[in-house]
Amino acid sequence: MPKIRHTPEAPTDIRELAPGEEIDAHRHDNHQIIYAGSGVVAVTTDAGTWFAPGTRALWVPAGCVHAHRAHGHTALHLLGLPAGTNPPGLDAPTVLTVGPLLRELILACTRTPHDESPEHRRLRAVLLDQLRAAPREPVQLPTPAEPRLAAVCDLLHADPADPRGLAGLAADAGASERTLSRLFRRELGMTFPQWRTQLRLYHALRMLADGLPVTAVARRCGWSSTSAFIDVFRRAYGYTPGTHHRPPPGAN
Prior knowledge:
Arc Repressor Mutant, subunit A, 10 strands, about 40% helix
């Protein structure tokens, strides 16, 4: 098992990551906000994977062992906060909605991490207020432990367009449809359709960040039509997949 790196203080800086580049598992003694000004960032822990485009940020609490992976060219904005400062009151990794004001505050604070001027301190105070009010988003792929459930999840990770329902997947998993349905609810905290939608959205973000056309992404991720994909994507992230490759103004 690889050694987990311990960095006492989570850095506040900006890192440019190439497509597919990873930051190995590590932990900090303080909290961290992770925001992708461009591209998509996925954060993985033992409990699962959280993923965020430019309209979302990831909250990682102090002491949580986590790893990063970039999808597409990613401008990663990292913002450390003291362990005693927890405006959203969260003790587990969580995806937060990032509106225009919160986005600009994150960008400003990560661009000048050592600025201790009164103006900069006021910016950080407003940022904490914005974090306190930021809506939480259920954008997570929990990691299954039960072998039969893991088998189903692995099949759909390999082919998110697989059209089979639980009844069709049950034979490959060695479990009944009813058993699998119960396992999804009990172990992953969501229904099978909810989990599959999250899986497809994750793969869609990854493919879009890699530059695939919207129609190809819709097909490869299993949506019945491009328009259906656009509708689900827009409701999930607040913008259309066709504009995904365009970073928000000032994001880099």
